[in-house]
């Protein structure tokens, strides 16, 4: 079973995992005391709320196997269910203080009465995760969303305010690119070739940013645990503006600490992760930590696959869930067999050409990130240093 924050009007693409949300979270109002120490804005009077811009939710993707990395028998079925928490998004700005006029995006978790203890826990975990990462002595990564503050309303709603760097996600980009590709069929071959080359550069730059954000989190002993195309924020989706693209990871409501002092904790966000670690024979602190990191890399591999296919296919040809089923259920993470299958489909030719760059460097990297054995997956830093990710193949 997998849980990820996604717009409810769009399809989910995340790895198959289990996250169980049962216990009460720390009260958000108590966390405000800690927030004050980090210079976060916790006074609602310092914010001005603008127009609503959408809704968020999360979904559970359930597979038929008890061990997601045992593919000998294949994954028989996949069940997708909508989660119970709905999150609203608003534009806004800081109205007082040194950050006055700074644009913000509000992420609003419903109060306990509407969203139950799950919503309260998610809000508290996202706040704590950003506070921890933003207090690093190594500085703040430009590839993570920046939390400026938050507050609780009288009805118990939790409002988190993030710096507004752009409202688009990697999923929005993929959708726009796919729709544009449908129009490219009428262009001359030279212009089409140039457009696809820009797309290749843009996607590699997007993946580089997402992996840098993930590497920063892992270096600070944090797992993302819901990485996907909706959880990567972009400041532009124009491929001609690739030099200015800065991808940023967001949606840390399911983030998990992997500090050795906390690896024995079995709270609602970790019990599913450590249960799967045990199934994969990861029992020691070192093995459990390695499993958690590899689990994020698997999700990053699915994100890579999504961006390698969807933007290079015409609208409606490929979607995240169908691609995930193809990789996991049909070909059991055998990327060579996947390639042979895709070659026979003319609608996938652009995706094949992208992954074929550098004598198949894309397939090589994708196979490593989606290796059924978690011990054989590369670290985020190793992914970034791979010849496909450095852009050598372009």
Short précis:
With 394 residues, this protein is α+β, with helices and mostly antiparallel strands. It has 11 helices and 12 strands.
Provide the β-strand percentage band: 15-25%
- Average pLDDT, rounded to a whole number, is 84
Helices and strands, in order, run as: EHEEEEHEEEHHEEEEHHHHHHH
- Uncertain segments are 1-37, 62-76
Cα separation of the termini:
36 Å
Structure description:
The chain has 394 residues and is of the alpha+beta class. The protein is built from 11 helices and 12 strands. Strands 1, 2, 3, 4, 5, 6 and 7 form a 7-stranded antiparallel β-sheet that branches. The protein has a 3-stranded antiparallel β-sheet with strand order 8-10-11. The protein is globular, with a radius of gyration of 21 Å. Mean pLDDT is 84; it is low at 1-37 and 62-76.
What is the secondary structure topology, with strand pairs?
Layout: E1 2-6, H1 28-37, E2 47-63, E3 78-82, E4 87-94, E5 103-109, H2 112-134, E6 147-152, E7 158-163, E8 168-169, H3 170-184, H4 189-219, E9 222-223, E10 232-234, E11 248-249, E12 256-257, H5 271-279, H6 285-309, H7 320-330, H8 335-343, H9 349-369, H10 380-384, H11 387-390
Antiparallel strand pairs: 1-2, 2-3, 2-4, 4-5, 5-7, 6-7, 8-10, 9-12, 10-11
Helix pairs in contact: 4-6, 5-6, 6-9, 8-9
